[in-house]
Amino acid sequence: MFESIRKHSKFVMILLFLLIIPSFIFVGVNQNYFTESSQTVARVDGHDITQQDWDNAHRAESDRLRAQNPTMDAKLLDSPEARYATLEKLVRDRVLAAAAAKMHLTTPDAQLVRTLREIPAIASLQKPDGSLDAEAYKALVGSQGMTPEGFEANLRRELALNQVLGSVSSTSFTTAAQLQQAMDALYQRREIQVARFDASAFAGKVQPTEAELKAFYEAHTNQFKQPEAATVEYVQLDLAAVQQGIVLSEDDLRTYYKENAARLAGPEERRASHILINAAKDLPAAEREKAKAKAEQLLAQVRKDPKSFAQVAKANSQDPGSAANGGDLGYFGREAMVKPFEEAVFKMKQGDISDVVESDFGFHIIELTGIKQPKVPSFEEMRPKLEADLKQQQAQRKFAEAAEAFSNAVYEQSESLKPVAEKFKLSIHKVENVTREPAPDAQGPLANKRFLEALFSADSLENKRNTDAVELAPSNLVAGRVLSYAPAHTQSMDEVGEKLKQLYVAHQSAELAKQEGKAKMAEWKAKPEAAQLPAAVEVGRDQARDLPREVLDAALRAPTNALPAWEGVDLGNAGYAVIKVNRIAQRPAQDAQVLEQQKAQFTQWSSMAEVMAYYEQLKKTFKVQIKVPRPQ
């Protein structure tokens, strides 16, 4: 099993990513859309995935990722590896959809509602009465290019697909013998001796001549190349900047409190249990009547003995998401459930059992088990939040107007950023050594590819004019200008100066250390009794002894069929190390807490392997063919 995980580690990570982070964007397939000119790139269960499908899916995925991370490099998103990952995801979706259809897997309404309520962005849209702000919800999913109906349908579908592999991962278990064997191998200890040959110890032996330095410079000119760089300044307009100019009066705050106190306190929530008898809305009338009769029979039973509600729900409810819990749906607000269900719940008194309630999903019997009434805080308690919320709202309303004025100002007065900075009370940020590509530690605007492209445009570099306003993210604009510019060049020997000698000495010192280390290892292997080695230490993956990672890895990889074993390790500019592996040491006993942690870790690995194997089997079952080669 461990060999399988090792060989397929890349696949396992991709598969886990797909399981842990569900994608709520699914590109639909219309089989009639295919044409002879649309090349087939993959085939699943007899159905083609065309080049057009692949392009559409990758465009949607790229748009989604860019919306989440505006600074993401477009080249990365359109790399061969990224495109192939999209194709693999399309194949994965088709395989799981085929499996879900074959197993008749669906997502119950209650499970969909619970999942929606667990999405923070949606949970934050509840109104004072507990209902969902429908317009805000529509705008939220619309920002992803979807309608609420489409979003919910895709989420329902995604939850059904996740059941296919989830059913395998949730059943994995580990025996004590498996755990012991795996952990003994993973955390094996070895007794070793390590001799270090540090490059710094050989530095005194390196006395370079001018000719040697020149030859080294000419052989390593790539080390002295300097990318094009600029000194720039920029100003940034965001909601925080707009808020600075907003002054709230006492009347504004008190009016806002009166209008929103209930909402700020939170919505009323109710807890209910239900018994569901499934009856889809398109079911024949006779079948629905049969289901309703069954519900009426169960209603009579629980009204006769209300305390038996949970027991009856466990035995009879056809909602798999709640039946095992006695029908309990937990607390929820308005618009979290389908309309007929919600209307019934919010008319009931605690302890009531409803009449049979009909919905598109069937017939419900509802018991109201709890009511949470929010406490309305005082004005003074809410004052900080009132100020923050009201300023935020006013800033959002004013930002569009401010953004237009900001864009006009940087364009019309393009020789300087001072006018726009003074107008909006913004700070001008000056940064040196800015490059065309974002630096590894770049933050804010200088990590944004589009802004850097604007700064390094021909007009900006040649004329030193302000850039146009660039949108970093919603309600976040930046404009900048180049103060000075240096093109890419290779530093001369004179410019490099003392650094050239330092690099040469470091390079030659490391070479001398390696030569000495290799010579000593050959000598010690031939005459072990003459080996001059430090005292032995025990090491393992959980006991590194401050050894460099390369040394520890070599010590644990060394073959142990004939001990002692010798290994030489090139430490780059740090020098060289010689390792002697004396014996395999017994692993110390572990306390109960550590063993539990290790068991959980191994169970996760085992689950990953089982999921991987099951998915590979599904690919065979549904005859997956990917006709595009994987990027090398």
Automatic annotation (TrEMBL):
Report the residue ranges that make up the PpiC domain in this protein.
267-370
Going by the entry's taxonomy, the superkingdom of the source organism is recorded as Bacteria
Sorted alphabetically, which Pfam families does this protein's record hold? Rotamase_3, SurA_N_3
Parts forming coiled coils: 276-305
Entries under InterPro entries matching the protein: PPIase_dom_sf, PPIase_PpiC, PPIase_PpiC_CS, PpiD_chaperone, Trigger_fact/SurA_dom_sf
Compartments where found = Cell inner membrane
List the GO cellular component terms: plasma membrane
Task: Give the main localization category.
Answer: membrane
- According to the record, the segments passing through the membrane are 12-29
UniProtKB keywords: Cell inner membrane, Cell membrane, Chaperone, Coiled coil, Isomerase, Membrane, Rotamase, Transmembrane, Transmembrane helix
| Similarity comment text for this entry | Belongs to the PpiD chaperone family.
Would you tell me the protein name for this molecule?
A: Periplasmic chaperone PpiD
Q: Which organism is it from?
A: Comamonas thiooxydans
Highest classification ranks of the organism: Bacteria, Pseudomonadati, Pseudomonadota, Betaproteobacteria, Burkholderiales
